Amino acid sequence: MKGIEMNKFCQGPKCHTYTTQDRKRGIKGDKYFQTRTVGKYGYGENHFCTMNCHNDWWAKHGTRAIDHFGRIHEPIRLVPENAWVKDYDYHYNDGNGSSYTHYFLNKLTDERISLTEAQYDDNNYTLERARAA
Ligand SMILES: [Zn+2]
Predict the structure, then answer these.
(1) CA distance 40 to 76
(2) Residue 60 alpha carbon to ligand 1 centre in Å
(3) 56 CB contacts (<8 Å, ≥6 apart)?
(4) Backbone angles phi, psi at 96, to 5 degrees
(5) Is 44 in a helix, a strand, or coil?
(6) CA 109, CA 126: separation in Å to the nearest integer?
């Protein structure tokens, strides 16, 4: 978040119209407001200085962006085949301190497949691998 990142300008189309002191530049008789840098906030995947600027961009470009990248014309369904997530339970002070149990959970059927903590943390440990084990 230093160097180049800190000098990245906010992509908000109205950023320069928000007349805050930190946007103010110039000398007496020749003052102006300018677009902020994204700075440490980095909203919207690090392209905007505030959620307000993010929303301004969306209001201006959102419809075209959706049409460009593909509009959803049919509802997307969560069915048993794509309803699996990794999840865990936290057990507070179950006799010898707290512990966790990890598992794949089917959010539709409530089916569970036990996992070790390492398997839970491993992004390459997929449902297919858990089923084959
Ligand atoms: Zn901004």
Answers:
(1) 36
(2) 14
(3) 12, 13, 14, 15
(4) -130, 50
(5) helix
(6) 18
Q: 106 C-alpha to center of ligand 1: Å?
A: 41
- What is the pTM for the complete model shown? 0.66
Burial 61-96 (b: 16+ CB within 10 A, else e): eeeeeeeeeeeeeeeeeeeeeeebebeeeeeeeeee
- Work out the mean pLDDT of the chain and round it to a whole number: 92
pLDDT at 3: 46
Q: Which residues of the chain, if any, have pLDDT below 50?
A: 1-3
- Whole-angstrom Cα Rg for the chain: 24
The Å distance, Cα 97 to ligand 1 centre, comes to 47
